[in-house]
């Protein structure tokens, strides 16, 4: 039997190993050190923002974002429904209440009209998710946020290398948050970043991410004995410098990884036209889709479980897309979000990563085609 085609796969090698070696030689392995600072200044160019803070993951970056924006008990935060539940959880961590808003049927990002309809006197902000990396409608969302005096956060977990109307993901809201988990487009295994143009928020997030004091790097080299005091109960949300070294090497690869995945997406779009019952994902002209995942929609009546079983049995990995948040018991949310609720049951992620070849694509499409035939 031919090799299994993986759903997602990191692209890592000698460059990342060399980067780790350099961090070992520097002697600073823990977080918030010189390698983190170097990555932050380089990632600021990618994200197009003044300030970058490396974090332990995207969830912790979201937690910091909402903390510095002041979300708390009694507040409502409107969240794009179709996402990994880190987005909704982060609202709950602050004591605020997530209010989920339905999504666009074509690109699955939050529907600006649904956001507007969900605003109440308790609403303080909006978190829009770049679904599988494709940016949400930030012009419309910005206008709504400004009209109602709300802040706007971009969950850019999957969107390194993406852009919207020529502006990079990371710069599209008041604060954005990235993930460098192993399933994302660039990775250090685990990791994240917060990006913003606001110095006060960046400084506050930096303090909160290291237990509520300035990072040790700021005291390094002093001949005095500076003794910090704690006036806020912060967290340890630091990225290690080892991870930052890996991220520097990944950043060098970013452009080629995104373009390779774009080529794979174009091959899929072409080949999938032949399969009845399968719709390819939509990438809008005014944004660059970095293709963190490639998610197809099965026609109603196609048994997704059977498709998945048949594909997996034939050596092609697949999975559901991401989650409809509002149906997750943890949120006890009682609204109806029909678009998200429906698509969540019909989406199927098929292999997408930068190590795929055209032969892999042919094999995936062939197995998918057979699988849909048995499952109709
Ligand atoms: C992966 C993901 C997260 C969580 O990222 P971590 O780095 O694992 O915390 C949050 N939001 C979205 C949209 C994601 O895809």
Automatic annotation (TrEMBL):
Its EC number is 2.6.1.-. Transmembrane segments: none annotated. It is an enzyme of class 2 (transferase). Keywords: Aminotransferase, Pyridoxal phosphate, Transferase. It comes from the Bacteria. Its cofactor is pyridoxal 5'-phosphate. It holds the Pfam family DegT_DnrJ_EryC1. Belongs to the DegT/DnrJ/EryC1 family. PANTHER family: DTDP-4-AMINO-4,6-DIDEOXYGALACTOSE TRANSAMINASE (PTHR30244:SF34), TRANSAMINASE (PTHR30244). This is DegT/DnrJ/EryC1/StrS family aminotransferase. It comes from Microbacterium psychrotolerans.
